[in-house]
Structure formats: C-alpha cells, structure tokens
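Person: Please work through this fold.
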Amino acid sequence: MKAYLGIDVGSVSTNLVLMDQDHNILQTIYIRTQGQPIISIKKCLAMVVKENPGVVILGVGTTGSARQLAAVITGADAVKNEITAHAVAATAMVPGVQTVLEIGGQDSKLIIIRDGIVTDFAMNTVCAAGTGSFLDQQAARLGIPIEEFGRLALKSTLPVRIAGRCAVFAESDMIHKQQAGYALEDIVAGLCEALVRNFLNNLGKGKQILAPVVFQGGVAANPGMRDAFARALNTKIIIPDYYHVMGALGAAILAKEEVAQKRKTNFRGFCVADLDISARSTECTGCPNRCEIVSISDGNSVLAKWGDRCGKWSALETSRPQTNYRKLGLG
C-alpha cells in the first residue's frame, strides 16, 4: 500500500492523516501534545506502522506551530503554515467553500476563499478566549465533561449575556452569573455566544463572510459553538467529516503535490520513532543579541538548529544533507 503522511503538530494536539493516492483517508490520529512534540510525533509514527505494516510512504507534509520540528524529525517534503494547510483541506472536502472558521487549542483563524484561492485571512494568537484550551478549562471548572459541554448549551431557552472579549473577564462573568442563580445551560449557551461574538469582532471585522461556511478544528465538535455561529451568521455551518485533523489532511495533500514535482521523497522512514531524538538549548555569544539556539539531535548527530537572528547556525545545519534511514534499509 502506498500513501502520503500529513502531520499537524500544535500546542494542544498532534494530528496525523494517512492518505492514499486517490485522497482516501486510511487512518487518522488525534493525540494530546502535552508539551512534548518530539514524543508525540514519534508516537504517531509508531501508531501508523503498527496499524499499516508494510505501508510505503510516498511523501510527508507538516504544518502547525511545530511544523519545522516535525519536518526535521520525519524528513518532510512540504512544510506549510496552518492557513495554507486548512484552506487546502477545506477546499478538498467542501468544493466551493468561501469561508473557513478554524478554532484550535490555542488560536483561532478565519480564512476567506474565493474561486479556490485564499484572498484574505486573520489569526488570533493573543487571547485564549474561545479556544479549545479555554473551553476545556471552563468545562473542568463546572464539573462537566467537555463532550457534554456543547450539548448542554443546546438545552438553553435563554442564553445569558457573558463578556467574551477576554478569557479572564469571561470566567469572572460566568462565576457572577452562577452566583446570581442562572441555570447552568443558559450560562454555557451564553458563553458560546460570547466567544462567537469575540471571534467575529476580532477576526471577521471588515471581511465578507459568505456561504458555504466550514467550521473545523477541535472546537467544531462543540454543537453549542456550531449553533452560535449559525445564529450569528444566519447561515448553515458545515462540519466536515475530518474536522479535527484538517490541518494534517491539508499537509498530506500538499505533500502529494510537492512530490509530484520532484519525483522523490525525503521521508526518513518509520524507524525514526525508535531513535533517540532530543532538543537542547544553548546561548550564542557571538554578538550582543545572545540568541537562544535550539539544537535538535539524533544521538550525537545534530539534525538542525534554529533560534538565531542572523542565520549563523540555522543556515549551517540546514545546508547539511540529512541521513535517509529508509535508503539505508533501516526504515
């Protein structure tokens, strides 16, 4: 079996998609990063080879906040930002899509697509209000399983008004409403509406949001947020089948396109899941900037370095050819 790998490594989750040559999804993986991206990447690769022994990887694409790290570990062919990966996946899953709402663990994105091309986008990385981690925190504080959080909002008959422009203010406002005796389902529904207002005011200001509208990312699993978006935009919200791994799917599609041009892959092989890959920080004393340099090593061999402003270290390491363990018969 021949397939492509797409890997999306974010602050909260690490996602992987195994896609065949006809864009059929063979396997999806969604695990928590838990602050250890190297371990989570290796764990995902081990899960793929366990479920698909003998699979031949034709290409690898990486995206997410740790896309460069994932690319170094796996030997990626395509390394793309989240906007590009999510737009490509949304276009593939929902032909004709014009607006993409994406809310992940630590950030949120609004992508405007016209005729299959990204024409505008906005990304919020400043405040956690409305992201998956914030909703997880509030669900835990209320003693509600996150899987039930959104369904509880659907039971509301009159959502209360919650201040949603800031995570701190939203939480304090929720506590105030609880102490005032408001029903829990009305508070949860009010929170969903507040977070949607926050999203549209911060990211959607000045942008024309047209249907079809696709909602993806981990928060798309929350029906309360989905319905709040539908009411605010007065349109149907489409949740694609693989909403939780759309970044990884886009990376796999981009990897296929990249490999089609160069006719070969840089994939190092599944054996990297068993290698001793580690990260170490050092301070460069070459100039007053004193940059913090991160070194990614495989045992005694340095795979890559980054963190410098001048390119002294990153340019040196990226110019060195990486060992392809699959060519050596180890992958």
Notes: The radius of gyration is 21 Å. Residues 15 and 30 are 5 Å apart (CA to CA).
